């Protein structure tokens, strides 16, 4: 009878120990899930900020390329020895063409081939 009681006590203690270990592991896993959720949120916010910054930089690059093309046209206009009327008539086509060409998407002609970047 005593051995049965000892065996029962041992089984109860073993169950209690297992339950405590399961509880500890469950808390640890839940803590890790919460940390992962917080980290995912932080990474998503950072990704959003980087996308916005990239969009801004692409627009700035686009504006800079247009401004550079217009400056080049203005320099050509100022360097000509023709009168002002012929400057406007003869150079509008080339300036418009240059600004259109420069205003095109700068990444349009970039292709990735393996690890190399190829530009047309």
Automatic annotation (TrEMBL):
<dbReference type="InterPro" id="IPR039976">
    <property type="entry name" value="WIT1/WIT2"/>
</dbReference>
<keyword id="KW-0175">Coiled coil</keyword>
<protein>
    <submittedName>
        <fullName>Uncharacterized protein</fullName>
    </submittedName>
</protein>
<feature type="coiled-coil region">
    <location>
        <begin position="33"/>
        <end position="60"/>
    </location>
</feature>
<feature type="compositionally biased region" description="Polar residues">
    <location>
        <begin position="87"/>
        <end position="97"/>
    </location>
</feature>
<feature type="region of interest" description="Disordered">
    <location>
        <begin position="77"/>
        <end position="120"/>
    </location>
</feature>
């Amino acid at each position: 009878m005593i051995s049965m009681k000892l065996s029962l006590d041992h089984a109860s203690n073993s169950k209690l120990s297992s339950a405590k270990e399961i509880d500890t592991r469950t808390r640890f896993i839940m803590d890790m899930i919460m940390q992962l959720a917080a980290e995912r949120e932080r990474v998503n916010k950072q990704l959003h900020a980087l996308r916005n910054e990239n969009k801004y930089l692409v627009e700035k690059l686009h504006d800079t390329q247009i401004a550079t093309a217009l400056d080049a046209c203005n320099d050509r206009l100022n360097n000509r020895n023709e009168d002002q009327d012929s400057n406007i008539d003869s150079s509008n086509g080339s300036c418009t063409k240059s600004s259109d060409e420069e205003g095109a998407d700068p990444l349009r002609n970039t292709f990735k081939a393996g690890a190399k970047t190829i530009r047309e």
